[in-house]
Design brief:
This protein is an alpha+beta fold. The chain has 3 helices and 6 strands. The chain has a 6-stranded mixed sheet with strand order 2-1-6-5-4-3, covered by helices on one side. It is globular.
């Protein structure tokens, strides 16, 4: 069996379930559930079109996400459209394409996750993301 045709292992399946929960809690405005997806020491970095970046710790990032939902005149929903996952049981990396719908506006982008396995399951240590 070549690496390209190898079926997803149990770690990949667990990461996929975790990432789907990450997107569904955000879309449901469940900020407690969404925040629970992150390790307390997580760093989140947004990369702009020009290559500049802004990095936040978890508290500031979650505050900004809560404000985004509160200030949006229309409900927002974000869904994964493609996931590429590498996992070994202790650490996982995932590149996830997503689609954000805000009323009639649609934005796409990519999230790059580094996850670690904790006693309570997978948690995000690092998230680097951008909009197309």
């Amino acid at each position: 069996v070549t690496a390209c045709s190898k079926a997803a292992g149990p770690e990949d399946a667990g990461v996929r379930v975790f990432l789907n929960r990450y997107f569904s809690t955000w879309s449901a405005k469940d900020m407690d559930g969404y925040g629970g997806c992150f390790h307390p020491q997580a760093r989140i970095t947004f990369v702009g079109k020009g290559g500049g970046s802004q990095s936040d710790g978890l508290t500031d990032f979650l505050h900004g996400q809560k404000l985004s939902h509160a200030q949006s005149p229309v409900p927002m929903a974000e869904v994964p459209t493609d996931m590429k996952i590498t996992a070994d049981g202790r650490v996982a990396q995932a590149a996830v394409r997503w689609k954000l719908t805000k009323g009639t506006e649609v934005v796409t982008g990519t999230d790059y996750f580094t996850l670690i396995q904790t006693e309570s399951g997978w948690r995000i240590m690092s998230l680097v993301f951008y909009n197309d």
